[in-house]
Amino acid sequence: MSRDVLSVAATEAADPIQLVAPDGTRHHHPDFDAVLTDVNDDALAELYTDMVVARRIDAEATALQRQGELALWPPLLGQEAAQIGSARALRPDDFVFSSYRENGVAYCRGADLDDLLTVWRGNASSGWDPFAINMATPQIIIGAQTLHAVGYAMGVKLDGGDQASVAYFGDGAVTQGDVNEALAFAASYRAPAVFFCQNNHWAISEPVDLQTRVPIAQRASGFGIPALRIDGNDVLASLAATRIALERARAGGGPTFIEAVTYRMGPHTTADDPTRYRDPDELEAWAAKDPLVRVERYLATRGMAVDGFREAAEHRADDVAQALRRGLIEKTDPGVDQVFGEVYAEEHTWLARQEEHYRRYLASLGEAGDGPGDGSGDGPDAGEGDR
């Protein structure tokens, strides 16, 4: 690598680094290109397929919520490149700590499709087994996962390992105390952690310029952490930046902060209406920077048959969406024993009292509350509509 990531951050933090422009033009960057020598056209087409699948998962989950099958869903539309590029840079033994929107990352880590939806349907208090895929279940408390990531990274360092942890969060989290404390600890202990901020421009209805007057990446320098500011709609830039940050972490260089400048095309969650606070012209401008379309355009300039790999990607996405829907509809609701029995490792009188009250409630409805599905009435597939 011709320059250390520190010098890259110092000279280019103001302007997002871009390798593939919206019109498909390929820009070159010495440090980023140096870590992408193994990414040929076929590999880029695979990244494209991952993005198509992530978008389809998102669309299917949104539809399921609108049909009353999920209580809520946090869309990722527009953020596919940031998630797929960074996730594909990870080793299997690295550990991911995410917010509730990184479903594209979870797909890349190998999460079962069913486990992407169980929490949002109310089938479980959590999702997948964190240690099966080395990814913690999504953190709902804004920014709390950054502390978890740093704690894990400090443990790795003390154990003498070369794994890294990655914390994903949005622009709305950067003003949280947890995130700033995590940055301070990571810098002080040179923890092998990567802070990956997806700046999607909106923290629910609050625009990013109300939270910071400078690019978010510049905040990291106050903690002594180098930062990279990238075009978050560019999957190659996302892949390269994360590889550089991971390489630095493994070599003992400490944490790196990545700001992926992207845009949340949909609502904050399916309970949100962004038309109430967002200018449609802004949405149109970002739609022209679509992360999938730019890859198609670039590969077309390389002579690849775009229609062919697009069709293959869409077939793959359809298969995933069908499996996602089928798995959700066929899932059995948890019984009372499972709901209350998997909260604490030992008996807890406060929880036991809640369980007793709930069983009395079920008894008043003529339900025993012992078997699978008991305690949920007819379940969400009974046509109750949005909840």
Automatic annotation (TrEMBL):
Under which name does UniProt file this protein?
A: Thiamine pyrophosphate-dependent enzyme
Residue ranges with Gly residues bias: 368-387
> Which segments constitute the Dehydrogenase E1 component domain?
50-316
Q: Where is this region: Disordered?
A: 363-387
User: What CDD domains does the annotation carry?
Assistant: TPP_E1_PDC_ADC_BCADC
Originating species? Zhihengliuella alba
Could you tell me which SUPFAM superfamilies the record lists for this protein? Thiamin diphosphate-binding fold (THDP-binding)
| Coiled-coil regions, chain positions | none
The protein's UniProt keywords, in alphabetical order, are: Oxidoreductase, Thiamine pyrophosphate
Cofactors required: thiamine diphosphate
Q: Which InterPro entries match?
A: Alpha-ketoacid_DH_E1_comp, DH_E1, PdhA/BkdA, THDP-binding
